[in-house]
Amino acid sequence: MFIPTLGGRTLSRLAASAIAAAASMSLAAPVLAQTAPRPHTQPLAAVSALHMVSVSTGWAIGAQGVLRTADGGLLWHTVTPRGVRLAGNDCAYFLNAQTAWVATAPMTVSSHSTITVYSTHDAGRIWRRSVIPTGADNELTTWSLSFSGARTGWLLGDSPGAAGSMGFTIWRSGDGGVHWHAVTSVRLSGGDKIGIAAASPYRVFLTSTNPVSGARPTVAQYDAAGRSVKFSLPLCQSIANAPVADPPIFFPGGYGLLPVHGTNTTGPGINSVVYYATHNGGVTWSCTHAAPGDTVSFLYRSYSFISPREGWSEANGRLYRTTDGGMTWRRQPSNLALSAWNVNLQFVSPKLGWAALTFSQNTCWLARTSDGGRLWRTLPARVLS
User: Fold this and answer.
1) Closest CA to 270 of 295, 289, 249
2) What is the reported pTM?
């Protein structure tokens, strides 16, 4: 197990030495007496989503709210919209270094429950607030946000109705998240929704679970008018059943990958991830080979692709890499064990990547690699509060 060096202790000793030295000096030394205190920071806590956009800049969301870094992950600034306290039933979408959206909903039952979407175009300095009245009298959860550009986005949330229902509503915005309208509301007969991914400004894909034994992965496509097309994909040879499909990952040119978690045919209790591929924007999907046995939880990103062909996936604490779109995988020798409650992988180039390993609500290790995942350096990540 790769154990990181915890930061902060050296700084504490230096701070103590500086205080002692200042106390022993004459009162005629006003410069030291007026030195501003260090900003208060805390260790990085649980991270539910990590999105790096360059060698220096990235976003995260988790127990400490919405975070942004400009130094590669060493120091994170809290940029949560003022007065907003994230409660765990929220979601976010990070488009680039400047633009992001956060959707929240109340955890308590109200006769006038609303969903609120916040948008920023200046790296979190200013957030614009947009309220979606739902008419719901039940607790709401925002499940997934996806944008196909700076203006057109989609939001997946609970439908108004009895608490605990399996219904969902998809909203769409055509003006950057300022105004939203409901595209469709559906009550599921079995399973539950997982998330959405925008294929274009006019089409979005919804994925869900299927609890039936021997089930095939099911994906639904919705257009801006609410019309739907449902896909029941064939089981790949290495998968006995496929109960969970994550939102697809789309690339320019109509290329995309659909991660599907299922039981491996090699034995009971052994799970794998299969990446279905599309070359026409999701009109048709084909099987790739299964990635090694995996323990991925719903919507926890323990895989990362930088192109339709090149990506990384965590499996049982080990790192695997593909350069042919998931057709073959090879184990990436690494000095970092990816064994954690939640693993977030994020690569921005064939060599540069990050891994956020969350062990508890208050403990997250952040590591960075500059050689494609062979050697990792744990960062003493801190959050400026």
Assistant:
1) 295
2) 0.83
